[in-house]
Amino acid sequence: MDLRFTDEEIAFRKEMRAFFDSALPKDIRTKMEEGRSLVKDDIVTWQRILNAKGWATPFWPVEYGGTGWSPMQQYIFLEEMQATPAPQPLQFGVNMVGPVIYTFAKEEQKAHFLPRIRNIDDWWCQGFSEPGAGSDLASLKTTAKRDGDHYVVNGQKTWTTLAQYADWIFCLVRTDPNAAKRQEGISFLLIDMKTKGITVRPIQTIDGGREVNEVFFDDVRVPVKNLVGQENKGWDYAKFLLGNERIGIARIGMSKHRIHRIKELAAQEFDGERPIIDNPRFREKLAAVEIELKALEMTQLRVVAAEGKREKGRPDPASSILKIKGSEIQQATTELLMDVVGPYALPYQTDQDVGWNEPPVGPDWAGPIAPTYFNYRKVSIYGGSNEIQKNIIAKAILGL
Amino acid sequence: MDFDLSEEQQLLQDSVTRLMADRYEFERRKEYAKSAEGFSLPLWRQYAELGVLGLPFDEAHGGIGDDGVGTMIVMQAFGRALALEPYLATVVLGGGLIQHAGNAQQRDDILPKIADGTLRLAFAQTERQTRYNLADVKATAKKAGASWVIDGEKSLVLHGDSADKLIVVARTSGAQRDEKGLSLFLVDAQTAGVSRRGYPTQDGQRAAEISFSQVALPESAAIGDIDAAFPVIDRVVDEARAALCADAVGAMDAMHALTVEYLKTRKQFGATIGSFQALQHRAVDMFVAVEQARSMAMLAAMTARDEDAEVRRKSVAAAKVQIGRSGKFVGEQAVQLHGGVGMTMELKVGHYFKRVTMIDTLFGDADHHLARLADAGGLI
What average pLDDT does range B338-360 have in this prediction? Predict the structure, then answer.
């Protein structure tokens, strides 16, 4: 046992940091630092810079454009990228549908889609959740009926993140309504968002943002060649997809960046004679979060170190800890920023809705803080709510 | 970075775990606790035979030069067994102080005897007013001709009642809370003027109140430089904190396993209570708390010997906070989920709860270390 990083790992970290520092466009970096929303162009620009370097999909197998990095190198890459702070490549393509395609899809699908995912030529979104199928995903109702060499899709998806930008959506659809088990009648379908009969309607979240949407399918004709793998086996591919994002789910690097940001702002914002950072009560709250984060980083490293020794495709159930704790810590950092900004959380000066072209009210960094706090309630809900994660641990690890 | 045990570490873990499984059955522990020393002398000799008592010392002194991981392995096994032997007092604290502060003569004299099980030490540091401030020392050592004369009252000396020798922190200059002006002395427990009153602790271990009245020592009794003991005390106590973190993780592991087992067997309302989601989620919260504690105990084990005192202090303080908080949660919930029987002396689970509760109070509780870390600018 040796918890020191090797010389090679330290050199690798330096290389990553130097690249992110020099390659990330300044305007994107500033938005990330200040917690402001990114637009489509920001994500596309950054992912193409990464792709030019060969790093848009470092986790993929080398034959599909991956890097061949060890799990530890992958972790360092992600942590440094988050800590810069730089945006991550579009996860719906890179981490979700991409691995499903290279693992289960036909050769011609791989040849067509994978390079386009790497270079974000297609913007992908995820069509899993439905109004009646959240944590209980297998109760989904959207149907796909075979009609010649097409499927005809009818139904509704919801919480579809950034569907307003999307060129393609990967969907779970019910192809066999009479299957013995609900999970057995589901297929995994790739659908061109320009197809007739698709309507996207934004959902405004409590922070004022419009990052999620409802997507309606009304007699949408999808070529059968857009089926991934076998008909009625979609549930297996979905489970694979959901278990696939382990490294980086805790977002350690991002929370580290937040901690630095909190310290910086708490040193410049005063409460009477003293800066907020000198208030012992605040300082202890902050230190408590830092300890949780350090502990989670160690837990994450334990999972990463064990990663190479695990059977392929079998996620470590301990990664559920990463999701639970990682989301709690992300939320705690947004709460600490609320403590720092104090009364200047109040003005609603969002740039997402009608735009904000007036001078800032209060400190110029105050605007995004309350919306971020509100928005981050999502992180313990999406990707399998923390309660679902606890069900998973209870069953898979504790055997209850 | 590597979390796997080396071959030697694996061997150590297997042999200590086997020994504890063979010799530390719960009923036997009660017998050990009733003996005059409050622990098992035969087992102490077996630890020596296994090489456990010399773990951190170099080979010349009967040890294997462990870097902290071995101590973590041993302490986790001890924590799981609720071991009563004075390993912390003798090997980690006593041995650590001699190893880091002693001169060649003292190291040659003492360390091999610790390693072979023939000498047990205790660390007489705390006083009535000390709480967790290691520099708050009133006991004095004054030079009289070629002798040192020690006066003062020491309190809560772990295993102080059965130790052969005591390492005493005394003030040789400065004011009551000055870091400068502290010195260490090695005192035979039988020396005239030393009187000890031993007692059991909440967690079944032993401690003593020890008074020093005109205790005359030769010059050679001083360990390390006069007036300059604080840094080495600080360092060795950090090593002890790291060891306690591992001890607590062993106890938490055991408590959690017992609790999950109980949830699977106890039936109410016609079902095993582990089928109830409220209890499942509580068991998961405990699991997460244990894993976070384990992670920090590892960090503490690896950094307790870090040359950079700042890195060491912060990491160990953070670990002690995590262990204190996790231990409290896991302990309280283990009793809660056991229900009424969790309250009884007969069941092991309550004893683990008491152990982790007491570990929090040793060398700074969670609040103390949180404040310390916050004042030092945090960890990230």
Answer: 97
Q: Does CATH place domain B122-223 in 2.40.110.10?
A: yes
Q: Which tokens in the block code for residue A162? A: 């950034």
Closest among B9, B104, B117, B7 to B60, alpha carbons compared: B104
pLDDT at position A117:
98
- The verdict on whether A63 is a catalytic residue reads no
What one-character DSSP code corresponds to residue B304?
A: T
Cross-chain CB nearest to B284 (options A9, A293, A393): A393
| Nearest CA distance, B336 vs chain A (angstrom) | 17
Does the structural domain B230-375 have CATH classification 1.20.210.10?
Answer: no
Q: Is A397 on the interface with B (CB under 8 A)?
A: yes
Alpha carbon B95 to its chain's center = 12
Residues 276-295 of A with CB under 8 A from B: 280, 283-284, 286-288, 290-295
- pLDDT for A2 equals 83
Which tens digits make up the pLDDT trace of B81-93? 999 999 999 999 9
Q: Check CB contact of B69 with chain A, cutoff 8 Å.
A: yes
- pLDDT tens digits for A126-162? 999 999 999 899 999 999 999 999 999 999 999 999 9
* Identity of the residue numbered A163: A
CATH of domain A252-396: 1.20.140.10
Give residue limits of the domains in chain B. 7-119, 122-223, 230-375
Model pLDDT, residue B221: 98
* Chain B residues inside the 8 Å CB shell of A296: 292, 295
Contact criterion met (CB below 8 Å) for B292 and A325: yes
Query: A295–B322: do the CB atoms touch at under 8 Å?
Result: yes
Average pLDDT over residues B117-133: 98
Of A269, A276, A287, nearest to A366 by C-alpha is A269
The complex's ipTM? 0.94
Residue B23, amino acid: R
B355-371: burial string, b at 16+ Cβ within 10 Å, e else: bbbbbbbbbbbbebbbb
Cross-strand bridge partners of residue A334? none
Is 1.10.10.60 the CATH number for B7-119?
no
Cβ of B2 within 8 Å of Cβ of A393? The answer is no
Which residue of A lies nearest to B277 if distances are taken between CA atoms?
A391
CA A110, CA A301: separation in Å to the nearest integer? 32
Q: Which one is catalytic: A79, A130, A245, A290?
A: A245
Quickly list DSSP for A16-40. HHHHHHHHS-HHHHHHHHHTPPPPH
Q: pLDDT tens-digit profile of B41-52?
A: 999 999 999 999
